[in-house]
Amino acid sequence: MISTSETGKVYNILFLCTGNSARSVLAEAIVDRLGQGRFKGYSAGSHPTGRVNPYALDLLKSLDHPTGELRSKSWDVFAAPGAPQMDFVITVCDNAAGEVCPVWPGQPVTAHWPFRDPAAAGGTEAEKRQVFADVYGQIHRRVDIFVNLPIDALDRLSLQKRLREMGTSPAETA
Q1: Which end of the chain, N or C, is less packed with Cβ atoms under 10 Å?
Q2: In a domain, 2, yes or no
């Protein structure tokens, strides 16, 4: 296989959730940081809320993630002509995983990594922020493992299997 260092290829990863307001947006920002130019994160939703959750934005800003480009958008944006071609499509909520997704050009590797919905958390302000921080940590751990996989050395089936296995392990230890 040709390595990304030889080709300069950047792997595009689309994270999907129903509302595209919290988990998928967190994952997009985390990939952009941990991917160090080898990976580009995107996010979208089947029924986008139209806004990024303020707790997600506050958390990302507090951790020095760029947030100016983050927005809640439909997954149709990435199935349209001229959209970036995805190498990976990962659902991060059970609702989106059960929906009929658009046909993605290029047949990307797909997986489901379920995470608790921090936007649905109740409690005090501090408790809600803690749930967002916990989910951020879980996503961060999975993405860190993902971006450090020897992608260039794995065939498509092995890569698909590894990504799906990551989604079945507890998010706290993935």
Answers
A1: N
A2: no
Counted domains in the chain: 1
Q: Enter the tokens of residue 5.
A: 């260092």
pLDDT in tens, 104-142: 778 899 999 999 999 999 999 999 999 999 999 999 999
Please indicate whether residue 156 is annotated as part of the active site: no
CA 122 – CA 137 distance, rounded (Å): 19
Burial class of residue 164 (count of CB atoms within 10 Å of its CB; 0-12, 13-18, 19+): middle
Annotated catalytic residue: which of 13, 14, 16, 17? 17
Catalytic annotation present for 93: yes
Q: One-letter amino acid identity for 143? A: V
User: Global pTM?
Assistant: 0.89
* Residue 173 falls inside a structural domain: no
Q: Work out the widest C-alpha separation in the chain, in whole angstroms.
A: 51
Is 174 catalytic? The answer is: no
Alpha carbon dihedral 77, 30, 10, 169, in 10-degree steps, equals: -90
Query: In this structure, what CATH number is given to the domain that contains residue 14?
Result: 3.40.50.2300
Phi, psi of 4 (to 5 degrees): -65, -30
Q: Which of 34, 77, 79, 101 is catalytic?
A: 101
